[in-house]
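Progress report, Aim 2. The chain analyzed during this reporting quarter is listed below.
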Amino acid sequence: MVRMLALACAFALLALPAVKPAAAQEVESTALPPYGPAITLDQAKRVMAAAELEAAENTWQVAITILDSGGNLVMFHKIDNAQLSATTVSEGKARTALEFKRPSKDLDDAIARGGAGNRLLALKNITPIEGGLPIMLDGKIIGAIGVSGAISAQDSQVAKAGIGALTKQ
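Predicted structure tokens for the chain:
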């Protein structure tokens, strides 16, 4: 009798439509952009100059890292008196944004929500902190920028200012 009940329950479960949690559906339905050609040195210089200007106008002492679409270091600048940790954290933010094809803040938010997002804590070498952004051009990721040294939202503001220089060609 117990076996028949278990078998009936198994068939009933198989007959139910597969329902995914809303968060899983949201992640799957979001098409991630492809990697494109590597950011050029000229483009990186424009991004860096605009990011440095934003940091200087706000007197934020930050470190700024720009990677190409292959994860190679293209440029790095540390503003005088930026904290020492800003060096490694800015690169970590850029690498996280590049490897996950999304702002590093998205991973920060997923962890903050808890649940399945906490699985990200098991990954090595990620920096799930706001301030890392993919650099997009013509719908493709050509690199990433990471900024660290100020409050995370300010780091992100500096990164966005840098990327904005590419759209003003």
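The beta strands are 63-68, 73-78, 132-137, 140-148. The domain at 33-167 is CATH 3.30.450.150 (Beta-Lactamase). These observations will guide the mutagenesis work planned for the next reporting period.
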